Automatic annotation (TrEMBL):
Pfam families: Voltage_CLC. GO terms for cellular component: chloride channel complex. PANTHER family: CHLORIDE CHANNEL PROTEIN CLC-E (PTHR43427:SF6). InterPro entries: Cl-channel_core (IPR014743), ClC (IPR001807), ClC-type_chloride_channel (IPR050368). The keyword Membrane applies. Keywords: Chloride, Chloride channel, Ion channel, Ion transport, Membrane, Transmembrane, Transmembrane helix, Transport. The keyword Transport applies. Its main location: membrane. This is Chloride channel protein. It is a multi-pass membrane protein. The lineage of its organism: Bacteria, Pseudomonadati, Pseudomonadota, Gammaproteobacteria, Oceanospirillales. It is found in: Membrane. One of its GO terms (molecular function) is chloride channel activity.
Length: 601
């Protein structure tokens, strides 16, 4: 097992990562299945027909009561918990990857189960993709932590859980891969791509075995795109870009809303949803059934307007009020409604150019997703996998780019999740140095030839230390002081010179700093130094490095940050073998890290 971990510390451990990716994808698929079944079982108690998203069949009073009950339970459940434990969903996963090497706290993961279920059961405008990604990332992190894997591998496993979560939600494995790399991990590497692809495929296989191969919603085979549609597609995409930017700006009002008491914010979120749901239950839940209706039989104009604007606004308002809902599902539904509205308007105003409103509904979903997330590749791949029609690629690319540019230039938005983290004072976009150093763990670069010793040793003890051919001597200085590293070559040089000529360094007790010798009286009566009796390793000539500690699982990025934090030039690498027992595995220097970045990355 130690050899397996050591191999994973390097940047090219693809076979090992691919093996772990299979377990990650399978576990994520099972977790997602359990989450969906949990929702279905609870909604059997009050939802006619047992369909968890059929809010239209409920009485208006019941539709109004559900959001208020949901925000009350969420408020009570999260009220006494620390602020850190209330962070959930995709944004939390991105933050943990950026600042904590993918380590997912258990309290947040447990909260995601019941909070995610309540937002969907309670009829808030929310999706299940955020919980799926958080649960998948947390489950994959659990695998890595149980195996005590290095953090560079843990980061890849979290990406695997993210991809498998999206894949299991939409039945779109390719879009899951692109989403994980583009939105969550924010980097493309071969080491990341191959395991993430395998995990995404495995997650899709698990859910297909249980729910079948149908995607989240059915797309008619008769939808056809023509070049004449391009001018109106561009017009629609401009409008969607403006709506997407407005959505992000409204959702970012969270810090300003903190001036309002928490209970009043929760009441506002629940009341707003309840008021709209009384007349238009289509704004509740994920809304995939509404997308199905749009793509098969076009709903009434007022329903489309409310879903297009109202659902988008309710989702943003709920987030701003502090309720952690997932946004991917709602923005897809709103995008479909906006697209359908433009398709109907184009059919009325420009019948010679526009002939199928359903085409605009599909393109509207991709355009809204691309603009809100600033993730064009993920949006395009989702469109292709949902439609099973490669003929839409050209039109989807055009719609996604136009809407994304519009939102970015007009509203100066950098993507929903990045903007949200910037709003919290965090900076999820890593610098090239940090990205490169995060891909490899400390064991791949550290020097393993280390022996621990006391500050003062005898000549025989020095020889015994050198017999193991160490590179560094780690010298302890007591409980209150950090240890020091001394190059073993400095001690070897001293011992070698002593073997050649015990009096080579001249007479006198202080001829060599830190060295005390035995004395003997010559025939003439003079006192002469003989062999070394004791060596003070903290005083003999040589270069000594102040040390701080770093965990064996840490990445080079973590090690580099720790070196800068403590102002030292080297770290001793340790891991826990038993409670309160730490073993030193090696030493890593600033020079070794810099050399890796220059020559081996």
């Amino acid at each position: 097992m130690d050899q397996f971990r050591r191999r994973l510390a390097s940047v090219d451990a693809l076979p090992q990562l691919c093996l772990l990716a299979v377990f990650s994808g399978a576990l994520t698929g099972l977790l997602m299945t359990a989450f969906r079944e949990l929702i279905d079982v609870i909604t059997l108690a009050f939802m006619p027909g047992g369909r968890s998203d059929d809010f239209e069949s409920l009485a208006p009073v019941m539709r109004m009561a559900l959001p208020l009950i949901a925000v009350t339970l969420i408020g009570v459940g999260l009220w006494r918990q620390p602020a850190a434990a209330r962070k959930l969903g995709i944004g939390h996963v991105i933050e943990r990857l950026t600042y904590h090497q993918g380590q997912m706290p258990l309290p947040n993961w447990l909260n995601q189960w019941w909070v995610g279920a309540l937002t969907l059961i309670g009829g808030l405008s929310a999706g299940r993709e955020g919980p799926a990604i958080h649960l998948g990332a947390g489950g994959s992190c659990w695998i890595g932590e149980r195996l005590r894997l290095p953090h560079n591998s843990l980061r890849v496993l979290v990406g695997c859980g993210t991809a498998a979560g999206i894949s299991a939600s939409f039945n779109t494995p390719i879009a899951g891969v692109i989403f994980a790399m583009e939105v969550v991990m924010m980097e493309y590497t071969l080491t990341g791509f191959m395991p993430v692809i395998l995990a995404s495929a495995t997650g899709a296989v698990v859910t297909q075995m249980i729910y079948g191969t149908m995607p989240a919603f059915t797309v008619p085979d008769t939808i056809e795109a023509r070049l004449f549609d391009i001018p109106w597609i561009i017009t629609m995409s401009l409008a969607i870009g403006l709506l997407a930017g407005g959505f992000i700006r409204l959702a970012r009002l969270g810090p300003q809303m903190t001036r309002v008491p928490r209970w009043l914010r929760l009441l506002l979120a629940g009341s707003a949803t309840a008021a709209v749901a009384f007349w238009y239950p289509q704004v509740q839940g994920i809304g995939y059934d509404t997308v199905g209706n749009i793509l098969t039989r076009m709903p009434a104009l007022d329903v489309l307007l409310v879903v297009a604007v109202g659902k988008l606004a309710l989702t943003a308002l709920t987030l701003a009020c502090g309720v952690p809902v997932s946004i991917v599902g709602p923005i897809l539904v709103s995008g479909a409604a906006v697209g359908a509205l433009f398709g109907m308007a184009g059919l009325f105003l420009l019948p010679s150019l526009v002939h199928d409103p359903h085409l605009y509904a599909m393109l509207g979903m991709a355009a809204m997703m691309g603009a809100v997330l600033q993730a064009p590749l993920a949006a395009i791949m989702a469109l292709i996998e949902l439609t099973h029609n490669p003929d839409f690629i050209l039109y989807g690319m055009l719609a996604v780019v136009v809407s994304g540019l519009t939102g970015r230039q007009v509203w100066h938005c950098r993507g929903f999740f990045i903007s949200a983290l910037f709003n919290q004072g965090l900076h999820p976009l890593q610098q090239p140095l940090t990205q490169a150093l995060s891909r490899i763990a400390v064991p791949a670069v550290m020097e393993r030839g280390v022996v621990r010793t006391r500050p003062r040793i005898t000549r025989d003890q020095a020889r015994a230390l050198l017999d193991s051919r160490p590179v560094w001597l780690m010298i302890g200085r007591g409980e209150d002081k950090s240890p020091v590293a001394l190059a073993a070559s400095d001690l070897a040089r001293l011992v070698l010179e002593d073997n050649r000529d015990p009096a080579a360094e001249g007479k006198g007790e202080d001829a060599i700093p830190g060295v005390s010798r035995t004395r003997k009286r010559t025939e003439t009566g003079e006192v002469e130094e003989a062999a070394i009796e004791e060596i003070d390793l903290l005083a003999i000539p040589g270069q000594r490095l102040e040390l701080a500690s770093v965990d064996l699982q840490a990445t080079l990025s973590e090690a580099f940050d720790r070196i800068n934090e403590y102002g030292v030039d080297a770290l001793y690498v340790q891991h826990t073998t038993a409670p309160m027992i730490h073993k030193v595995s090696g030493i890593i220097t600033r020079e070794a890290i810099e050399n890796y970045y220059r020559y081996k990355r």
